[in-house]
Design goal:
Helix 8 packs across helix 10, helix 10 crosses helix 12 and helix 12 runs parallel beside helix 16. The protein has 17 helices and twelve strands. Helix content is about 50%, strand content about 10%. With about 525 residues, it is an alpha+beta fold. It has a single domain, classed as Cytochrome P450 (Cytochrome p450), CATH 1.10.630.10.
Length: about 525
């Protein structure tokens, strides 16, 4: 009986694929020539299903762009048309200038249905709910509003310094502690806190499941009906585990904050500010508003915990491998701020090299080398190429930020590419203006993220010396520049030596008072 149902589902699924394939071959109108963007030749019916890469897709797509001499390329899979954009001009033309039709997200059977991540801002389809989410977050985190957070942000960054000072080998964990404190004011345990393990598993799910064309169930949705014991249906087990983690990441810290507020506890974080603002507006249903806030801060937390960890971990790795850049930044900090003081937000404009170093960390390894996919909502023509409605459209941020025409010698870590005569050069494309998205899908938390990351990096450089770790024989350990797969890319675990620059710098750390 069960086998019969499975066979029936397979037959129906194949029939649907054939229908969609035939439908895709029919021109939308006699006036539109179906000239698709160039791309690798695929197989009949199956397209490029065996060529779509899982690991380092950004490098493969970049090479295809060079091979076909085009900044827009196309790959196919059954029922899927995927368009990859390899230039800043292309993503600006489509995601900003044509944002009215390029702001949707592709529906993922795995991500939305099996894992249940549809509530996340990055995964939400374009519509009223997305606009409500963005409005709530924009009110609290726009460029002017985030300045009120700078005092508390500095306190969180001080705590990060203190944590690294006492346990330098666990810097990734300390970064996650800082993010949880900022968004929910929850103090994590010094070791193995369940909030962290839940969030790591949920973000792994989001990062892995959101990669376009990677999972067969997204190409052949009928596979969702297969039981997990069926050969090839191992994704069902992963989906079950991820679904639990996604729900826990959304609900558990949210309920913690609501419970503490209900018991009269007074504390300040991003969540309490949003709730206080919502409670002042009596014109809206509080339950509905609170649900939107829960999803909004859950999205911020999910995005920050991996984005923040990725950027700061990549920064640590870059300082190990490029000590000359670290030394120049520290010389600037010593000259401008002084060896007996810590930088503040008032020093941002006075520290152009530090700002350039932060931008180069974003550029050299983008957190999302392949950005979250968009979905076009109408047939479109771009540069003479036909992009049919429903196509998945992807920004290859790695290719864009390694374009030799914009960034000469792009493989070199070189903060000075952003400077001219010791000052910021506006003629050079700032990586931070791209990596947070464009148009109606731009990250609403980008201003706070840039503030916190700048402060974290400036403070770490002020007091710590980052270098390669030593093995038991006293030899330097040079880490391999390898990265964990997924939409959000993290450097593979590595060892680093993080020590205070001097006794005076140790006294600076001991003298700061992190928020209680």
């Amino acid at each position: 009986m069960i086998i019969g149902l499975i066979i029936g589902a397979v037959i129906v699924g194949i029939a649907r694929i054939l229908f969609r394939h035939i439908h895709d071959r029919v021109p939308p109108s006699p006036t539109i020539a179906r000239l698709h963007p160039p791309g690798p030749k695929g197989l009949p019916w199956l397209g490029n299903i065996f060529q779509i890469p899982y690991d380092s897709a950004w490098e493969v797509y970049r090479e295809w762009g060079k091979q076909f001499e085009s900044d827009i390329i196309r790959v196919r899979a059954p029922g899927m048309n995927i368009v990859i954009l390899n230039s800043v001009a292309a993503i600006t033309d489509l995601f900003e200038k044509k944002s009215a039709i390029y702001s949707d997200r592709p529906y993922s059977t795995l991500l939305h249905e099996l894992v249940g991540f549809g509530w996340a801002l990055a995964a939400s389809g374009y519509g009223e709910r997305l606009r409500d989410l963005r409005k709530v977050l924009h009110q609290e985190f726009n460029a002017d509003a985030v300045k009120r957070y700078r005092v508390i942000e500095t306190q969180f960054c001080y705590q990060l310094l203190n944590d690294i000072f006492h346990e330098p080998d666990r810097f990734s964990y300390h970064i996650r502690r800082m993010i949880m404190k900022a968004i929910y004011d929850i103090d994590l345990k010094a070791h193995d806190d369940p909030y962290v393990s839940i969030a790591e598993e949920a973000v792994e799910a989001m990062s892995t499941a959101a990669s376009a064309g990677v999972f067969l169930v997204d190409i052949l949705p009928f596979l969702k009906m297969l039981p997990e014991w069926f050969p090839g249906a191992g994704f069902q087990r992963e989906a079950k585990r991820w679904k639990y983690a996604a729900a826990q990441m959304l609900n558990r810290p949210w309920e913690n904050v609501k419970s503490r507020m209900a018991h009269g506890e007074v504390f300040e974080c991003a969540t309490t500010r949003l709730l206080e603002r919502a409670d002042e507006d009596t014109s809206k249903d509080p339950d509905c508003t609170h649900a939107i806030i829960a999803e909004g801060v859950g999205s911020m937390y999910g995005g920050a915990i991996d984005t923040g960890t990725s950027v700061l971990t990549s920064f640590i790795l870059a300082m190990m491998l490029h000590p000359e850049a670290q030394q120049k930044a520290q010389a600037e900090l010593d000259e401008v701020v002084g060896k007996n003081e810590l930088p503040t937000y008032s020093d941002v404009e006075k520290l152009p090299y530090v700002g350039a170093l932060v931008a180069e960390c974003f550029r050299s390894l983008p957190v999302t080398p392949i950005a979250v996919p968009h979905r076009v909502m109408e047939d479109d023509i771009y540069k003479g190429y036909f992009i049919p409605k429903g196509s998945t459209v992807i920004s290859n941020l790695y290719a864009i930020l390694h374009d030799e025409k914009v960034y000469p010698n792009p493989e070199k870590f070189d903060p000075e590419r952003y400077l001219k005569d010791g000052k910021w050069n506006p003629a050079v494309q700032d990586a931070t203006s791209i990596v947070f998205g464009l148009g109606r899908r731009i990250c609403p938390g980008r201003f706070m993220a840039k503030d916190v990351l700048w402060m974290s990096i400036a403070l770490i450089l002020s007091v710590f010396r980052i270098s390669k770790a030593m093995d038991d024989d006293g030899n330097e350990i040079t880490p391999e520049q390898s990265f964990l797969p997924g939409l959000i890319v993290l450097p593979a675990p590595f060892k680093a030596s993080i020590k205070v620059r001097s006794d005076a710098h140790a006294d600076l750390i001991k003298g700061i008072r992190p928020q209680e």
